[in-house]
Amino acid sequence: MAIIKLFSQREAEAANLDHIDVYQYDKIPSTLRVQIKQISVDALGKVGIRGNAVDSRDRNNSLWAEIEKVFLRENGLEKIGHDKLAGLRVLSFLDNCTTTDWLDLVELIVLGIHVMGDDRHYSERQE
């Protein structure tokens, strides 16, 4: 298992060393939150394998499940929502979470996009 140091962890370490980040992240505009969600679905694939979150037989897109699992583990959380599929929980959480949590999740999504962008993994992406 790879060790992932998320934005929030790096920020906490920097604060302990009295380093101030050049960028200050106050509030993420709702339009940017929506755009990032749309880009994430386009890049990572639909949240369910069948592409239909309403279908009771649907299963998680494993990439969304992995993003949620890492986020939960790194933040010491048990869950971030009540939706059936991990991708729906992540996307719903992105709507109203704190700026720091949002940056952590976006970082994990970008990592997922990077992994799936590798030609070896293209066939695993759910269209």
UniProtKB/TrEMBL annotation:
A Pfam family the protein falls into: AbiJ_NTD4
Organism domain of life: Bacteria
Family matches, as InterPro entries: AbiJ_NTD4
Domain HEPN AbiJ-N-terminal: 6-111
Protein name (Swiss-Prot/TrEMBL): HEPN AbiJ-N-terminal domain-containing protein
Lineage: Bacteria, Pseudomonadati, Pseudomonadota, Alphaproteobacteria, Acetobacterales
